Amino acid sequence: MIPIASFAGKTVAVFGLARTGGATARALMQGGAAVIAFDDNGVRVEEARAQGLPVQDLRKADWGAIDALVLSPGVPLTHPQPHWTVDLAHHAGVPVIGDLELFCMERRRLAPSSPLIAITGTNGKSTTTALIAHLLAEAGADAAMGGNIGEAILTLPPPAPARHHVLECSSFQIDLAPGIDPFVGIHLNLTPDHLDRHGTMENYAAVKERLITGVQENGTAIVGVDDSYSAAIADRADRAGKHVLRVSVRNPVTEGVTWAGGQLILSQAGADTPLFGLDGIETLRGAHNGQNAAAAAAAMLTLGFSTDTIERGMRGFKGLAHRMEPVARIGRVRFVNDSKATNAESAKRALRSYGNVFWIAGGLPKEGGLGDMTDFLPHIAKAYLIGEAAEDFALTLKDGASFTISKTLDVALGEAARDAASSGLPEPTVLLSPACASFDQFKDFEARGDAFRSMVLALVPENGAGPGA
User: Fold this and answer.
1) What mean pLDDT is reported for the chain?
2) Which value, to the nearest 10 degrees, does the dihedral of the CA atoms of residues 266, 231, 78, 41 take?
């Protein structure tokens, strides 16, 4: 826990009492603040009261006596309309911030030169965050990981001169952190997302850019430049005098790290230096993971670690659950859990990473369906369609790929495992990458991925051999 002494002796309203809000209230109280906590969810209010948190309906509070409103990131700040607490705070001239801002305030107070590595982007930020934290730990560094992944920020160990904090930052968190000032700020990419909370793509991009514009004067901005919004962010940071390293999986860069043909390449002072290849690292397959690895390598080099140390750490990276997670190899057949792929673009990244895919897809469909599958059809040996999206996905695939409507995950897995083992194809992969939400058959994507993993492991015979061995 990080006691927030920056508000000692002051009164702070905390709205939103789920994991982040509860931790925030306790951190403020430990630091000496008077806290007023509330939530629109009555059950959470009663749970907070039972845990000893000071709960009060903020509609009845004296906002003239409140010094700040700390808003949980899941609560709307601007769109589709400001939450009622935000309106009350603005009317009273009370600043609205989040737990990330509290962390940054405390870091400036305790250890302003401590290495804060903050990561954002539409896709890949969780993998990149986990990868950097893993590399630091493998190198023997003091590293704490949290934010939008894992632990709530304020439950981490406090800032200290040699302690690396590796924080995944969502756009919601950045929007509530006007003072964010990382030593290494990483922006991976931008595609349309969360527009219900930001209004327009331009607003969404502007919020993400704050992480880069806030990079410390002696720090480094690492920016993926393979989309136009992100390339513009890198250019503006350059013009503002930031030290910018660009990351790309499509084109060479002048200063930065690229991924090409499975190889990471450092470009510096007009010279290109091969770093190492990612071949054989199952958890970093595909161009999208090439971008994640390039950004992580750029961060580690910036922090002063050697190429050998970085490569050794990457080869031991176990990846994240439900994100192209290698589950088992039974005989010749590889089984991969990519349940986190809840939209078509994510599923297409996974399909691109493998050949001869026996693809399990479907669930609760999202707007746009699968879209254009032309470039991905050569990767699909056969598709097994489940959930509410099965019929629509069948219409998309009917003229380009073999498929069957399996309806449920257990049936799909059994059919895919059988077909892959008997196919005679080299390196067959049974891939759960649904391109859909899970809520028609599972409570969330984690439950769906856990079910897939359990069912796959139940297929593994005691001697490790399996179909097609």
Assistant:
1) 94
2) -30
